[in-house]
Amino acid sequence: MPSLKEVRTRIASVKSTQQITSAMKMVAASKLRKAQTGILQLRPYAGQQQKLLMQLSAGQGDALSAFNLQHDANRVLYVVFTSNRGLCGAYNT
């Protein structure tokens, strides 16, 4: 049977582990909240980009465009807008 000192040491160890786990949960929640906020702030920008692409594709007249066709296919077309500067990380993100 363990001694009283060993039991107290074990209890202190468990409490310490609980504090560390709690701190890690708070950090993870903060990072998740920051990521969600970033995504929500980008939605208007993405909507304007989609609107711009639709206007550009509408200017082609009757020509079929990949931007305005609806398909049930497994392939997806991505149009990427980025800068050509190395220090524009926030813009590219």
Q: What this model shows, in words?
A:
The structure is a single chain. The chain is mainly α and 93 residues long. It has one domain. It contains two helices and no strands. It has helices at 4-58, 89-92. The relative contact order is 0.05.
Furnish the topology, listing elements before pairings:
Blueprint: H1 4-58, H2 89-92
Descriptors for this entry?
2 helices; 93 residues; single chain; mainly alpha
* Order of helix and strand elements from N to C terminus: HH
Write down the overall mean pLDDT.
Answer: 80
- Count of helix runs: 2
Structural class: mainly alpha
Strand proportion? under 5%
- Strand element count: 0
Envelope shape: elongated
Instruction: Please compute the radius of gyration using only Cα atoms.
Output: 26 Å
The oligomerization state is single chain
Low-confidence stretches: none
- Report how far the terminal alpha carbons are from each other: 59 Å
In short:
With 93 residues, this protein is mostly helical. It has 2 helices and no strands.
